[in-house]
Design a protein that fits this description.
Distance between the termini of chain B: 21 Å
Shape of chain B: globular
CATH class of the largest domain in chain A: Mainly Alpha
CATH topology of the largest domain in chain A: Serum Albumin, Chain A, Domain 1
Pfam families (chain A): Nop (PF01798)
Mean pLDDT of chain A: 90
Protein name (chain A): rRNA biogenesis protein Nop56/Nop58
CATH superfamily of chain B: Vaccinia Virus protein VP39
Structural class of chain B: alpha/beta
Subunit structure (chain B): Interacts with nop5. Component of box C/D small ribonucleoprotein (sRNP) particles that contain rpl7ae, FlpA and nop5, plus a guide RNA.
GO molecular function (chain A): snoRNA binding
Oligomer: heterodimer
Strand content of chain A: under 5%
Distance between the termini of chain A: 66 Å
Number of helices of chain B: 6
CATH superfamily of the largest domain in chain A: Nop domain
GO cellular component, one term (chain A): box C/D methylation guide snoRNP complex
Number of domains of chain A: 3
Number of helices of chain A: 14
Low-confidence stretches of chain A: 1-6
CATH topology of chain B: Rossmann fold
Chain lengths: ~290, ~210
């Protein structure tokens, strides 16, 4: 870097009234140490007086901060909901097409495997006939779709912690996004009782239970989390209930305050280790 | 003893002498003329003043406020102080903070992470009189030490430490002792007190920069 960031204030090189540049400087700039910026701004001719400097600073910080908040919030829960549904669609479609592809390609080439991996191998072949060209082109579609699904996943992993910091910390960004999508938004998730959060994604089983055809589901989509599926079956109900309870608290904090709250994560970790200690206790008792 | 700065007064609200400042109301607080109630139950700095800690705010002009949230407390600070820089990390409360700042020409809202002072040192000036910190993150003492660079020599720190943000399982007193030790590298502690009954498991610390 040629610019010396240590002695330049946010106003360095700004023309008066250049709103976008001021926002950029406030948002992305930095310095190693503070300085007497009001005096330096007057010396540099950015402002006539310190009081004019403060007026300019007031306007610039409000404009910049408001724009940044809007940007950050447009990374909001509804966008996440679309992203996670698109990711699932892309994933599912890639797998369906890969199956079709593998069936078709198997009639033309030797040792064609199955799945997205096999499709990616086919992409590297050079077609020798118009027929092979179609099959390889289809393989390219599968490759593209699977890549799109991966990129959507990476996007969700980046964005979910912005939208729902506590939920993402507890559940992981992708499961957090799925819970938001299943509920229809962060606000609706925040307003659901934890018993509902516990069985989100297990609606079929829940309705079968309500119709008297099955026992009540112990867990829905949260089963994909290690806290639930990594707990022994007899304690899984407790684990799912405790996990869902904390998730719904996390969703409420994320919706109403939006601030990270480290202590609830520790409480969850404590609770889970208590539940898992039962397995160890039983093992000891049986010896 | 608490020295109230010009612009902060105890006035009569519902038959009790309560802290208040002059400014545009922010959160539906009771008012007496253009004086508005500063509720110690909603503000850790308010609680530190109300409980009679050795907070000498007289002569305080410029302020850096870390963890401004939606601006409840910082609105009162900007009512009595001069240039007031408000740092908050979460976008949602900052929406409200901007509303508070619009009515106060000396309040500068910034969406920044208090753990990264280099990301706002090009905006926040040096030689400030007061640093107020109320951030619910692990490493609260380190944040105060890292931000001491903004204070003038002898500058004042008013710090609210939330025990549960550091370690939920540890005894709050143990957490508070560790915090005091860590602060000593940059500050001399003038007073420290639990903020009960206003805020449970919080410690208020008043310190001077070394």
């Amino acid at each position: 870097m040629t610019e010396n960031a240590t002695d330049r204030g946010w106003f360095a090189g700004l023309e008066p009234g250049s709103v976008d540049e001021a926002r950029e400087a406030i948002d992305s700039g930095g310095a190693e140490a503070p300085a007497d910026w009001p005096e330096l701004a007057v010396d540099a001719g950015f402002a006539e007086s310190e009081s004019e400097y403060y007026d300019l600073l007031h306007e610039a910080t409000i404009t910049a901060t408001r724009a940044t908040v809007v940007d950050r919030e447009q990374a909001d829960d509804k966008q996440l909901l679309h992203a996670v549904r698109a990711m699932d669609d892309a994933d599912r479609t890639a797998n369906e097409l890969a199956e079709r592809l593998s069936e078709w390609a198997g009639t033309l080439f030797d040792d064609v495997g199955t799945g997205v991996g096999a499709a990616r191998e086919l992409v590297d072949r050079d077609p020798t006939t118009p027929l092979e060209a179609r099959v390889i082109s289809l393989a390219e579609r599968v490759d593209d779709l699977a890549t799109e699904a991966d990129e959507l996943r990476a996007f969700i992993q980046r964005e979910a912690p912005e939208v729902a910091p506590n939920l993402s910390e507890m559940a992981g960004p992708v499961l957090a996004a799925r819970l938001i999508a299943l509920a229809g938004g962060l606000e609706t998730l925040a307003k659901k009782p934890s018993g509902t959060v516990q069985v989100l994604g297990a609606e079929d089983a829940l309705f079968a239970h309500l119709a008297g055809r099955a026992s009540s589901p112990k867990h829905g989509i949260i089963y994909t989390h290690e806290y639930v599926n990594g707990t022994r079956p007899e304690d899984r109900g407790s684990a799912a209930r405790a996990f869902a309870g904390k998730l719904s608290i996390g969703a409420r904090i994320d919706h109403y305050s939006g601030e990270p709250r480290p202590e609830i994560h520790e409480e969850l970790a404590d609770r889970m280790s208590t539940i898992r200690a039962r397995a160890a206790d039983d093992e000891e008792a049986s010896q | 003893m608490t020295e109230l700065p010009d612009g902060v007064e105890r006035r009569n609200f519902d038959g009790q002498q309560r802290l208040s400042t002059q400014g545009t109301p922010v959160y539906g607080e009771p008012t007496d003329g253009d004086w508005r109630l500063w509720d110690a139950g909603r503000s850790k700095l308010g609680a530190m003043l109300e409980s009679g800690m050795a907070v000498d705010l007289s002569g305080v002009d410029s302020v850096l406020y870390l963890g401004a949230a939606s601006g409840t407390t910082v609105s009162h600070v900007a009512d009595f102080a001069g240039p007031t820089y408000a740092i908050e990390f979460a976008p949602r409360p900052v929406r409200d903070l901007i509303g508070v700042a619009e009515d106060r020409s000396n309040l500068f809202p910034l969406l920044k992470d208090a753990r990264k002072p280099e990301s706002y040192a090009h905006i926040v000036e040096s030689d400030l009189d007061l640093l107020v910190q109320d951030v619910a993150t692990r490493g609260q003492a380190a944040v105060a030490v890292d931000n001491a660079q903004f204070l003038a020599d002898d500058g004042l720190l008013c710090l609210a430490i939330k025990a549960r943000s550091e370690d939920v399982t540890a005894d709050p007193e143990t957490v508070f002792r560790r915090v005091r030790e860590e602060l000593a590298s940059a500050y001399e502690i003038v007073d420290s007190e639990r903020l009960e009954p206003f805020h449970a498991d919080h410690l208020g610390i008043v310190a001077r920069k070394r």
